[in-house]
Amino acid sequence: MSIKGISKSQFIRGSQCPLNLWFYRNRKDLIPEVDPETQETFDVGNEIGELAQQYFGDGELITNKYWDIDGGIDSTNKCIEAGAEIIFEATARHPVDGSYSRIDILKKLPSGKWLLIEVKSTTKVKDTHFEDVGFQYHVFNGAGFEIDQCYLMHVYNEYERDGDLNIKELFILEEITECVQDRQEIISQQIAQLTESASQSISPKETIGHKCFSPYQCDFYHHCWKGVPEYSIFNVISKKKAEEVYSLTNSYEIQDIPEHYLPSGNKRLEINCFLNQQEIYEKELVDDFLSELQYPIHFLDYETISDAVPMFDKSRPYQQIPFQYSLHVIEQPGGKIKHKEFLHQETSDPRLPFILSLIEMIHLSGSILVWNQSFEKACNTGLADAFEEYADALHGINDRIVDLMLPFQKRWVYSSKQRGSHSIKAVLPAYFDKSYQDLNIQSGGIASLYYKHFHKSKFDGDLNSLWSDLYEYCKQDTQSMVDIFQFLENSK
């Protein structure tokens, strides 16, 4: 039986879990549809790859389809024969094990040796990148290319845009040759094992656990985990410990965790609440928290966009750029709740209009409640750095921010319905017959994605509907905070 070689992406799958690779090769029916946020990750990677090609200037691009490996190899060889010194998407196959790969940039040196350069949209080198480039080195070296050095080319997160995009400043190249070469023996063994395993008619036996999420969440998580309760041993102890517990008990149920595996602190508290269907309310601690708040009380939430490529002057890769806020205000105890909001509906930089509206609408005194204060504070600090004339006002807002998440994070208030989470989307339905399920936009990630598509002229829906959906989503966040605050107040 002939053994079909594996690609780099298949190798990465199999290195995480051989069953992942087997499903991918043999059970295409289990592969889920690509969701919008995952597709955006792919699109960002493609954009960064194209910019990296511009970084190197003139080069030959191999345009064969991803599945046309033989055609890609033939095109690569023709480019080399024609004297090309830089080849984008060069393709090779190992002559012994059949493994095959493309490399983002193959650069020839005067010595006749080659540089392997892999491009990533991350802002640093990660351990998984060594396996990534290590596989490419195995293939190209085996195919007869004399590799001099290997590089990981990634985004430089300190680059600040000033006018036209400076591609030379956007990227950093880090040499990783030694780390790649040190892994060659192990990688060769893995390729042989995975190639053999993937070709079998019977799937390999694997157990679920921490590997299902590291370094990536497995595409087949929905299949392998379908017998695991929504709230299980994996939620209350580390995934590695949960694996041990399952091997001992053959159960994913929390009530079956042996005593010596039970955690301490908040996780132990969560387990007790779950098993006894209890709620916790530390009245004295909550009352002390509430007593520090000063009227008028504000409830503030931001929506932001970020991109690997800075979109505006005085912005950096992946910096959170606020484009919308929702603000509820209670001016005095028992007072009427007022709502104010802002949404930048143009493709220009939203930050200055955002700042001006925020400063105008927010009171000069009073507590400002947010959920997860590090986010809004970081946004305000970034705004202050970019627009120094408003720094005092923005830092003043930060000084008044109070994190309404704190009582839930500290487990002063906790319901078994929260299932170990203190996100606002877990807390709200635990105490109210409310949720985000009826909204057209149900997460900040989707709000950000749709707005970024609008900004890049990629949004193909109705803009009026988009504005309405964004307003409703952001308003829901601050209304949820109002509801939760009033719940705490009424429990005093």
Strand order of the largest sheet: 1-2-3-4-5-6
The CATH superfamily of the largest domain is identified as Ribonuclease H-like superfamily/Ribonuclease H
Name of the CATH architecture of the largest domain: 2-Layer Sandwich
User: CATH class of the largest domain, please?
Assistant: Alpha Beta
CA gyration radius, whole angstroms? 27 Å
Give the structural class: alpha/beta
What is the number of beta strands?
13
Characterize the main sheet: 6 strands, mixed
Cα separation of the termini: 74 Å
How many domains? The number is: 3
Low-confidence spans: pLDDT under 50, at least 5 residues?
A: none
> Into which percentage range does the β-strand content fall?
15-25%
Q: What is the assembly state of the chains in this entry? A: single chain
- How many DSSP helices? 20
In percent, how helical is the residue content?
40-55%
- Average residue-wise pLDDT: 96
Structure summarized in a few sentences:
This protein has helices at 8-16, 18-26, 36-56, 69-81, 127-142, 167-170, 177-182, 184-198, 221-224, 233-236, 239-249, 265-276, 283-291, 351-361, 373-386, 391-400, 406-409, 424-431, 444-455, 463-490; strands spanning 60-61, 86-93, 100-108, 114-119, 147-155, 171-175, 279-281, 297-305, 321-330, 337-343, 368-370, 401-403, 413-415. Helix content is 45%, strand content 16%. It is of the alpha/beta class and 492 residues long.
